[in-house]
Every structure is written in C-alpha cells, then in structure tokens.
Amino acid sequence: MTERKKFYLTKKGLENFKKEHQTLKNLRAAKTKGEAPKIWESEDLNPEYLSFQEDLSFLETRIAELENILKNAFLIKPPSKKESKMINLGATVKVKVDGERDEFTIVGTLEANPSLGRISNESPVGVALLGHKTGDEVVVSSPIKTVYKIKKIKYS
Q: N or C: which terminus of the chain carries fewer CB neighbours within 10 A?
C-alpha cells in the first residue's frame, strides 16, 4: 500500500480549502439541477452541451482534488516551548543572506508563495532550514551555494 501524501496547512489555509470545496459543491448542484442542453443539434453535437460537460468535468475534478486535500490535511500547530527554538512548519524565520536581511514563513506546499514570503517545507531552502536554531549557518546549494544565517525564529 502506498503512503498518502500529507498536506500541511495553516488554519486559514484549511478554512480556505473547505470554503472552496463547499462553493464548488453548491455550484455543481446548481448546474445539475436545471435542464442540461440537448446533446444533438441536428446531426452535430450541440456546442452548449459540450461546454456544459466540460464545465461539469472541471468541477468534478477540482472537487475530487479538494476532497483528497481535506482528507489528508494536517493542521500546522504551534510547537511546544522547547521545540519553538527550532525551525519547523509554521515558523517565521529572519535570516541574513549575502549581507541582506530576509524574512519568510515555512508552510506546506499548497500555501507556498515566495513573493508573499511563504516558502514550502519541501523547497531547497525550507528543507535546509528545518530543524535548525537561531545562530546556525545553513548552506543551501541550489543552484548556487548560499549561506543563510538564522537571526530569529518565531511562531504566531
């Protein structure tokens, strides 16, 4: 039996996925409640019917994806006081890189958005930083060698 992929989510991220799931289920119900376009238009397939089927197929696919995410979601929780000195999921980390200060939060892959300062726990930098503490220097070689000096770790 293969191991299921775990989806690490913040409380807000989990709420957003639940909300999207419910919205799409309501949309599907509304779409299938009314009368579907007729399949044939003279001897050709009705373009409205094809569009309807395509939309419905997209909805079904996304609903299935969301159900899989929700079924395999693990909430990122604040660590114990002892563990909060180490970098883990949910940590906001201040670092010094090439003389510049930077700050980002380590989240699961579904919520990662580097332009918003949210990096994935599976990204090269995320993987390298996990388990380290303030004062550590971490070398990341992807694609060039970069040293991250950890200045501060906090959890909110």
A: N
Give the range of the structural domain holding residue 34, as residue numbers without chain letter.
7-75
Q: Residue 90 contacts by C-beta under 8 Å, 6 or more apart in sequence?
A: 10, 76, 77, 78, 79, 105, 106, 107, 155, 156
Contact (Cβ atoms closer than 8 angstroms) between residue 62 and residue 24: yes
- 50-59 confidence digits (pLDDT tens): 888 888 899 9
For residue 110, the number of C-alpha atoms closer than 13 Å in the C-beta half-sphere is: 23
Overall number of domains in the chain: 2
More confident residue, 155 or 49: 155
Q: How far apart are CA 111 and CA 91, in angstroms?
A: 14
Mean pLDDT of 97-116: 95
